[in-house]
Design brief:
The chain is built from four helices and nine strands, in the order H-H-E-H-E-E-E-E-E-E-E-E-H. By secondary structure, the chain is an alpha+beta fold. The protein folds into two domains: 60 residues, no CATH class; 84 residues, no CATH class. Strand 5 and strand 6 form a beta hairpin.
């Protein structure tokens, strides 16, 4: 976040510098307001660029075995350019390389989910999926595993059959 702020400030300074240079080259015929407007336009352009490239930059740095399951795009009236083209604000990635199963319950898979968000820290949560029944349970509070692989005290939630996270975990 700090690096993006510094980049935005320098983009404003660079655009103001270009405006000042153009003003000198034209014999100071440009209006005085052109320099601050150029600085503001440069900073706005840099901010928009950072918003639209955040997802690609973050996704390409994911390690092997972690796959993106779902993205959340956002539109906002406060950012009118997003009405034309929404940008990806959040996404969920699944660690398919470390997904675990138990021989006694082959329809159940346990995988770590990572929740990424623009301007948010990455959150990680272990989740159990029942591929046969189309349900999932977060393994944060009180779930216990027995020797035979069954789970007790899990808060199971039904998932739609076309859920991208369920599909990704159950197909790997």
């Amino acid at each position: 976040m700090f690096v993006e702020l510094i980049a935005t400030v320098f983009a404003g300074i660079a655009c103001a510098g270009v405006a000042m240079l153009l003003n000198r080259l034209t014999g100071r015929r440009l209006p005085r307001w052109i320099t601050p407007v150029a600085a503001g336009a440069g900073m706005l352009a840099m901010t928009i660029s950072n918003e639209y490239t955040w997802f690609e930059r973050t996704a390409e740095r994911l390690p092997d075995g972690i796959e993106i399951a779902m993205t959340v795009d956002e539109q906002s009236w406060l950012r009118p350019w997003t009405q034309l083209r929404p940008y990806t604000k959040r996404f969920v990635a699944v660690d398919t390389g470390m997904a675990r199963t138990h021989d006694a319950v082959p329809d159940q898979r346990m995988a770590d989910l990572y929740f990424f968000g623009r301007w948010s820290p990455v959150n990680q949560a272990p989740m159990l999926f029942d591929c046969g029944a189309g349900r999932s349970a977060l393994l944060i509070d009180g779930a216990e595993f027995a020797e035979d692989g069954t789970v007790s005290n899990a808060d199971w939630q039904a998932m739609p059959a076309n859920d991208p996270i369920l599909k990704l975990v159950c197909e790997t």
